[in-house]
User: Which sequence fits this backbone?
């Protein structure tokens, strides 16, 4: 069989596959992508068994058939060759000839029969989420997803559909980020845990359209245009986050977000590699950020703010602060505190989200 | 009918007398053993002030009649043996016959016992003197209350620890018997609060598993792989190993004839078998029951019966193979912990792994803070005669030497030969060729630097959004409570929840929450007393921090070094407290001895 496809279009679909395939896998076929020609479409699929991505592009197809090829090498070839069109000639299901411009490659592949069957979420009704909104929301919480494998239930974010809104929550046990936005037509559903890798892949989607979000028994599907990502639902109990978020923080400081971010970043230059901490000392109308490290030395910077509460000093991890502050887009940010032992909550001032906050637990320093 | 007899003098002398009563836990142990030996189906232990104020043990066993009950308090009165031949075949737990008498001599004891319901007797003894003995109504069985332990021995009273410590020790005793006797119901309460409760379950593997679940929480019991093997010596080895890797010392319980024992040789056999089978330093949970014909085992080595001697030397071979088989099955359910390690070819065996983690004399506590084992290079496993790298004075070589001065200030005549593939530093030593892994050597050097700094700095503590709940066995929860103030200083905050759940509310900032949880769980289950545990914890914490720091900044493999760089690295390495193993436990220095080289070239 033979498939003819436009190189630029093909590359566009091929590139996102790289994020899915396992680089260091013990199962060889997982470092491959599946190519399958059918009617006027070239279908592509990649999976690491947890997250799968399928897509397609228009093609001229003679015959039918497919092959699994080593993902990285294949992409390198398609990137490197010249010419507008790529011809893929399948001699049998283990050998593929690529012809483009004046180049000709014969590469070894694996039979499509060896490629894992991709999960199916079934015929469930879905919810449509504008992609721009989905992407913005993920960006606002993904930094708080835990990367600690032993606490697997925190290795993802909670997606919760409410009446006419969508909420996302992530936490690593030290901090928690929550964003909620209006989503017309959404119906209340139990929350579902979306693994980190799926979130990362969603951020790479492109387009202006709406993403169709569907939920099966064990898998979730996100479809945008030709692309569909299917991921395994992360099993586990997510913390009861509403109970965790303090309601009695009585001190407020309002900052210019950029000034605060930059100042923390500068002071954090003098914190070590691990157990990083800066001290935040609130006083009338000002905040003094300081850090001390026995190896490096000390740093301090004063930032003006709207603050009328009592003097308060608390320690925080500067990375937690900066990641949150950088995920916001508003000009001003409010930090709400109670004392040095309890959580500090950051909230944008006049943000577009229905609700956005980040809880950061303090450190004793 | 009298079942208790006075032992004859010959027998008395054959039994080494020992201090039976040391602390409340030893009283609990004796009383629980008596209850088990009396055939109790259910044993209730009630303590006050960690047992210092009161210990009450109630059983539904055989009970005693009046004369037995009175006689029970005589030294060497026992119903369990009457001749030396019996001693050879002790099948019951207690036999010394000195326990009750010894307890009665140092406390106020009230014994109520009945062989038939209603036909009971109450006997009161204060400091060894019988105060009263009268008939009373009591259900079948014995209840004995020991109050004011050491009321008449102030010197001993002073040596008692805090309520928490004594309570934890007593709890460990009850927990041990509860584990080994699933057919008996146990309950333990302290000042009205129930710490442990286990219903009688039966006497098979499944019952034992259920019992483990009752004590340690159901998830802990689910992941256990069982084993049972009948040995040719008439012994039966059975129990469970964990399938998940857990930190060292985590829930390792060994029993000989249902008596909880931490016999060093048995433990060593287990550790060795895990290392060989799993190629790992992470030891799984172990519940090992060794039911051995009494004649094959000597429990009379130690007054507290905390050590045993096995008559058959081949016993350990059978134990290891039994454990190996179980560990292999346990491993089958999880991915291989390490990349395939092929066994060393013969030629490589000549390379002595100085500081190789297993088997080397410094292996056991590789990198542990304050380890003094470093200098003990004369380990039994090295094929070389004793040669202390750090201390031995060698005749100076004529060639120029690297100015490597060790702690002792003596120059060591090593000559730098160069670098091998940008990875190893080669040294000519007085007695052989030395290879140093530059990356791990640098790691070790940085680690020691960090450690020095860390001792002075305050540990930063990160509060947790939501407490991590640790479900522990009663004794484990008590141990953490005991350590609370030390833990606080190291950046942990704990609070006790209901039951045996401990809530972690803050952890040292250097640890991820999961790591902190793991560290505390393993600490809780480790034997030993508060002081060692606190030291150990501090060491591990520093190690976790320093190891992660130093690994990242250390010079990498395949990085060419100048002669000066190499010299300074080697000099600093040899000045380090632990020059032979990196903080992760990998060897740093390998030595090929002259003798071995000569042998290989056929000159010897």
Assistant:
């Amino acid at each position: 069989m033979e498939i003819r496809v436009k190189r630029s279009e093909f590359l566009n679909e091929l590139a996102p596959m790289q994020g899915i395939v396992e680089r260091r896998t013990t199962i060889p076929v997982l470092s491959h992508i599946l190519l399958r020609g059918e009617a006027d479409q070239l279908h592509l699929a990649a999976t690491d068994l947890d997250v799968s991505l399928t897509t397609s592009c228009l093609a001229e197809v003679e015959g039918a058939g497919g092959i699994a090829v080593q993902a990285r090498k294949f992409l390198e070839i398609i990137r490197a060759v010249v010419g507008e069109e790529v011809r893929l000639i399948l001699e049998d299901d283990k050998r593929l000839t690529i012809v483009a411009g004046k180049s000709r490659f014969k590469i070894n592949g694996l039979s499509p029969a060896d490629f894992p069957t991709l999960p199916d979420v079934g015929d469930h009704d879905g919810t449509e989420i504008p992609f721009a909104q989905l992407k913005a929301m993920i960006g606002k919480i993904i930094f708080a997803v835990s990367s600690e494998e032993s606490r697997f239930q925190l290795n993802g974010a909670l997606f919760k559909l409410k009446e006419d809104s969508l909420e996302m929550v992530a936490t690593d046990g030290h901090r928690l980020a929550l964003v909620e936005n209006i989503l017309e037509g959404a119906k209340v559903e139990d929350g579902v845990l979306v693994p980190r890798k799926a979130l990362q892949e969603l951020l790479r989607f492109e387009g202006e359209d709406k993403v169709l979000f569907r939920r099966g028994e064990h898998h979730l599907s996100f479809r945008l245009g030709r692309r569909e990502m299917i991921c395994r639902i992360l099993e586990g109990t997510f913390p009861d986050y509403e109970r965790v978020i303090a309601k009695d923080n009585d001190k407020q400081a309002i900052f210019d977000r950029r000034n605060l971010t930059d100042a923390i970043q500068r002071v954090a230059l003098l914190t070590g590699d691990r157990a990083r901490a800066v001290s935040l000392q609130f006083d009338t109308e000002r905040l003094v950020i300081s850090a001390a490290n026995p190896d490096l030395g000390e740093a301090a910077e004063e930032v003006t703010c709207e603050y009328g509460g009592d003097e308060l000093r608390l320690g925080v991890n500067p990375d937690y602060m900066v990641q949150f502050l950088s995920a916001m887009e508003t000009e001003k940010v409010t930090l709400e505190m109670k004392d040095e032992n309890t959580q500090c909550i950051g909230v944008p001032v006049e943000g577009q989200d229905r609700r956005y906050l980040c809880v950061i637990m303090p450190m004793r320093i | 009918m009298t079942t208790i007899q006075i032992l004859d003098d010959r027998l008395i002398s054959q039994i080494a007398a020992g201090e039976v009563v040391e602390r409340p836990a030893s009283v609990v142990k004796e009383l629980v053993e008596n209850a088990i030996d009396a055939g109790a189906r259910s044993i209730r232990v009630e303590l006050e002030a960690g047992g210092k104020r009161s210990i009450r043990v109630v059983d539904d066993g055989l009970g005693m009649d009046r004369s037995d009950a009175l006689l029970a308090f005589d030294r060497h009165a026992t119903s369990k043996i009457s001749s030396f031949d019996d001693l050879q075949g002790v099948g019951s737990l207690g036999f010394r016959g000195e326990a009750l008498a010894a307890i009665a001599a140092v406390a106020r004891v009230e014994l109520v016992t009945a062989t038939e319901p209603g036909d009971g007797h109450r006997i009161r003894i204060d400091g060894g003197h019988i105060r009263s003995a009268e008939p009373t109504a009591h259900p079948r069985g014995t209840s004995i209350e020991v109050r004011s332990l050491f009321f008449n021995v102030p010197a001993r009273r002073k040596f008692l620890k805090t309520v928490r410590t004594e309570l934890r020790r007593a709890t460990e005793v009850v927990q041990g018997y509860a584990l080994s006797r699933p057919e008996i119901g146990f309950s333990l309460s302290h000042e009205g609060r129930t710490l442990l409760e286990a219903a009688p379950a039966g006497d098979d593997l499944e019952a034992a598993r259920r019992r483990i679940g009752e004590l340690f929480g159901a998830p802990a019991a689910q992941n256990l792989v069982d084993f049972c093997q009948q040995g040719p010596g008439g012994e039966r080895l059975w129990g469970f190993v964990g399938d998940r890797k857990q930190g060292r010392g985590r829930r390792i319980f060994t029993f000989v004839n249902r008596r909880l024992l931490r016999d060093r040789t048995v433990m060593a056999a287990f550790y060795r078998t895990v290392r060989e089978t799993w190629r790992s330093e992470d030891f799984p949970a172990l519940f090992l029951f060794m039911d051995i014909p009494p004649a094959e085992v000597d429990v009379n080595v130690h007054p507290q019966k905390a050590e045993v001697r096995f008559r058959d030397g081949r016993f350990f071979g059978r134990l290891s193979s039994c454990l190996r088989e179980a560990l292999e099955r346990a491993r089958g359910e999880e991915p291989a912990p390490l990349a395939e390690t092929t066994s060393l070819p013969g030629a490589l065996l000549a390379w002595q792994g100085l500081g190789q983690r297993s088997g080397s004399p410094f292996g056991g506590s590789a990198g542990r803070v304050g380890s003094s084992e470093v200098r003990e290079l004369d380990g039994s496993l090295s094929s070389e005669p004793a040669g202390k790298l750090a201390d031995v004075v060698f005749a100076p070589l004529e060639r120029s030497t690297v100015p490597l001065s060790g702690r002792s200030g003596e120059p060591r005549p090593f000559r730098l030969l160069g670098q091998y593939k940008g990875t190893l530093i080669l040294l000519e030593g007085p007695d052989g060729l030395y290879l140093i892994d530059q990356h791990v050597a640098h790691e070790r050097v940085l680690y020691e630097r960090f450690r020095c700094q860390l001792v002075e700095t305050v540990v930063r503590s990160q509060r947790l959004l939501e407490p991590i709940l640790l479900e522990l066995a009663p004794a484990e929860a008590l141990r953490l409570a005991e350590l609370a103030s030390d833990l606080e200083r190291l950046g942990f905050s704990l609070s006790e929840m209901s039951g045996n759940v401990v809530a972690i509310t803050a952890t040292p900032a250097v640890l991820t929450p999961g790591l902190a949880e793991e560290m505390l769980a393993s600490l809780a289950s480790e034997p030993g007393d508060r002081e060692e545990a606190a030291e150990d914890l501090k060491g591990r914490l520093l190690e976790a921090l320093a190891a992660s720091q130093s690994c990242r900044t250390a010079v990498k493999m395949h990085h060419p070094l100048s002669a000066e760089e190499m010299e300074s690295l080697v000099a600093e390495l040899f000045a380090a407290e632990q020059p032979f193993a990196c903080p992760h436990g990998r060897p740093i220095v390998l030595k090929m001895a002259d003798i071995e080289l000569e042998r290989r070239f056929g000159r010897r």
User: Anything to note?
Assistant: Residues 9-18, 83-91, 333-409 of chain B have pLDDT under 50 and may be disordered. Chain B touches chain A through 27 residues (CB under 8 Å). Residues 205-330 of chain B form a domain with the Ribosomal Protein S5; domain 2 fold (CATH 3.30.230.10). The first helix of chain B runs from residue 9 to 14.
